[in-house]
Each structure stands twice: as C-alpha cells, then as structure tokens.
Specification:
With 341 residues, the protein is an alpha+beta fold. The protein contains 9 helices and 15 strands.
C-alpha cells in the first residue's frame, strides 16, 4: 500500500514489506518514498524515537533494508502545511529551474549542476532545497526522483539523482562499493610542498563554541571516528599564495575534503568552518565564498553498467577567481591517474 493523500496518512499502525527493488535502501529513504508528504526531519524523528521497527527491532535512519523484511510504521499525522496541495505554477517554476541546471539525463538518472548556496536537503530554517524541488518532477505514478548522495550547501557541482526506485538501489550500491569515482576542484591557501599525495586520517564530529558541529581529525578508536582517505594533486599555482587542487575522495565522510585540506595546512578559500590560517588576506577581486566544486563524477549506469561520465563547469565565483589568477580550466588534471582505493 502506497500512501498518497492526507487521508491515507491519518491511519493506525501499518506494516510494509521490503520488496526486491527496496533492497539496500536506507530506512529513512524507504519511509520518504512511501510517504512523500512527510518532511524529512519528521521521518528522522520517527526512526530515532524507535517508533518505526524493522522485523520488530529498532533501527537507525541510515541502516540498510533487506528484501523480505517487514517495516512497522507507526500512526502518522501530516502537518497542515504538508497536506496542502502544491500549486501548478510552483511545480512549473521548480521543474523549469531543475531543467536549467541539468547536465545529464536519461530515463533512470538525472545529474544536476547544483549551484553554490542551494541546500540538498531541508533542515533547520531551510525551506528551499533540492529534495523539495524534486517534488515538481513526480511521474505519472507519483514516484519522486531520489537523492543518492549529498553535497554541502556551499559546494557546487555534480549531484546525481535517481529517477526510479530501481536506479536508486543500484546507484546506492555503486556509491557504497566505491565503484563511483568523484573528482573535486578547490582553490586553497598556500601551496603544498608535496605536489601529489594522499591524506589518510580518522574524522569525528565535534561541537565548537557556537554550538555548530564540525569534523575534526581523531585517533583510531575514538568515539564516532571513521577513516577518511583523499588523494590530491596540485594542478596549478598563483603567485605562490594560492593553489588549485584536484581532489579524489575514496571515502565519503561529512566535510571530508574541507577537513583534510585544512589538516595539511591548506584550507579551502572562503570556507567559514575550516579556514584556519592566521593573518591571511583574501586577494583582491576574489569573493569570500567556498571555492569547492564537485567537478566530475563517473558511475556505472544502473541499467546498462556502462560508465556515465559527467563534468560540471566552474560556478560564477570560481570562474571569476580563475580568470583573475590566470588559471586555465581546460588544462590537464593529474588526479585522473590517482588510485581509486
């Protein structure tokens, strides 16, 4: 049973089977796909409080489901705002915007050139985000395209979207198995002495003075510490003060590239969270915005297995910096030869 209206959601306890197409889907994504009217924060709350059970057991929002399992859904109530129908005009506007930033599309997959400043998912105080905009692309069966990975709000570039449940499961598997290759470009303070290298650390979340969370380098075995591995190469330099880095993350930890570049003493220009160079002045004409781009992504197509290779252009603020610094965006990128594991 798939809920599709406000009335259908005002129910008692429901038990839903995990179909083959849902295998490997995150618990929160499963709930989102079945009850699109629920906000993502509401879904996370239901799971964290233990109101949702899988085969009778509590689970975490990011736990993966297996075919044949049973998901117990508690009584659900729609917030009044969520139950209001979307306007046709808003859907047309949102769909047109998504079309304007689409850099690859077929019947299974959509790749967006996400602008800097647009959040991928909703959160505290965030009302406009990619996940919400995707409501405008529901198909005739009411199926909404699904996120399969995330980018930080201020990171621009390639964002892969699954248009079907089948594609979502296949893409999630390829991201987890690291058969997806990602290349990022960044402008950093200073010039690394080693022109090509690897950054391998453990990262754990820490809370800083303003109550905000950031990732910090941790020791193996520390609570919440997970391994993070990044390969990097210096593509070009500007006046020995700035370096254009190409980065290939092997793992996909939160803020991994931002934390790793800061860890080696070369934080990303415009990073409000991790820039840690004292008495450093922003060169004239360069905007104080995060200079990080998800430049390229290569992944096996969910249906054919053939590689899909998509490249995103420099966003306006980075293009301006490249022009000011005399950097040529079409020059050879040495990170391509770096290992994938």
């Amino acid at each position: 049973m798939k809920a599709g209206t406000g009335e259908a959601l005002a129910t008692g306890v429901q038990t839903l089977p995990v179909e083959a197409d849902d295998a490997d889907m995150r618990v929160d994504r499963f709930l989102e796909s079945r009850f699109p009217q629920l906000s993502f924060s509401h879904i996370q709350r239901i799971v964290r409080k233990g109101e949702l059970r899988v085969d009778g057991k509590r689970v975490k929002p990011n736990d993966r489901l297996k075919a044949g399992q049973s998901v117990r859904i508690p009584p659900l109530k729609l917030e009044a705002e969520a139950s209001r129908p979307r306007s046709v005009q808003r859907d047309e506007t949102d769909a047109a915007f998504l079309r304007s930033i689409t850099i690859y599309e077929d019947k299974d997959v959509l790749v967006l050139n996400k602008p800097m400043g647009l959040a991928v998912q909703g959160g505290s105080g965030t009302t406009r985000h990619v996940d919400g905009l995707l409501e405008a692309l529901r198909d005739k069966e009411g199926q909404k395209p699904r996120l399969v990975h995330r980018l930080d709000k201020d990171t621009a570039g390639c964002l892969v979207i699954a248009k079907t449940r089948f594609a979502a499961a296949a893409l999630a598997k390829s991201f987890r198995s690291r058969s997806t290759r990602k290349i990022y470009w960044a402008l950093v303070a200073g010039v690394p002495r080693v022109k090509q290298g690897r950054i391998s650390t453990y990262l754990a979340k820490e809370t800083v003075e303003d109550g905000d969370a950031r990732m910090a380098v941790a020791a193996h075995g520390d609570e919440g510490a997970t391994h993070a591995l990044t390969y990097y190469a210096v593509v070009d330099i500007a006046a020995q003060k700035l370096a254009w880095l190409s980065l290939k993350p092997v793992t996909g930890r939160t803020h991994q590239l931002r934390a790793h570049t800061a860890h080696i003493g070369h934080p990303i220009v415009g990073d409000p969270k991790y820039f840690n160079v004292e008495n450093w002045e922003l060169p004239g004409g360069i905007q104080n915005r995060l200079h990080l781009l998800a430049r390229r992504i290569v992944f096996p197509h969910p249906r054919t297995g053939q590689p899909v290779d998509v490249t995103s252009p420099l966003p306006p603020h980075m293009r301006q910096s490249w022009n000011l610094l005399g950097l040529e965006a079409d020059q050879y990128d040495p990170i391509i030869e770096a290992p994938d594991a």
